[in-house]
Design goal:
Elements lengths: L6 H22 L3 H22 L6 H25 L2 H5 L9 H22 L5 H23 L3 H22 L5 H29 L16
Helix pairs in contact: 1-2, 1-6, 2-3, 2-7, 3-8, 5-6, 6-7, 7-8
Length: 225
Amino acid sequence: MSNYHAFEPEINALICGFFVLSAFGMVVIRQIGACLTVFIVQSLLLAASAFVLGAEPLSWHLIAVGCVTLLSKPILIPYVLRRLVPREIYTVREISQALDVPTSLLVALGLALIGFALGTRLVGAAPLLAKQNVIVGFASLLIGALVLAVRREAVPQMLGILAMENAAFLAGIAIAPDFPLIAELAIAFDVPLLAFIVSILTRAVYRRVGSTAVGELAALREHPQ
């Protein structure tokens, strides 16, 4: 017999639905500032899912994970990015990418269907909340990989990596709710560190060549004397 209240699966399903929509949003959006906003929303949804999973039966571990996620992903990482990355990148430029939006959206839809199928096969006998998180996590992970593959700008590529980490985390809190908290804390603080390092590099590259397009970074190579 399930230990969950009747409303918890519905709430978590709603959270997971918006989570996968946010993954599609990162594929469609062409402005870096808006893409960062979608990442913030996705991180808030991740924290909300941790709180729902930790509510009944009560798990202080998952509540702590939700609090750490709430502090690090939607607050600390955007602060670092907005503080260190030049403002012009957010306000002026559109994201350069290898595929146009309609094609990217079709590919993302196909990847989501594959993710749903894989997730369903992996959690056939799992509890309902775990099924929801794992299925959506797999689909969102593949969509995040698409964002990473098609974007040509450094910051959007990093947001693709962070979106993939969010998706893996969404599945992880469902299938391993008692994962050691120290490991969760290490992951939570490694991600802002990654954002800090990439922000510093992006700022230096932008000041040097006036672009953060990965294909143009060859201009930084040393020329033979």
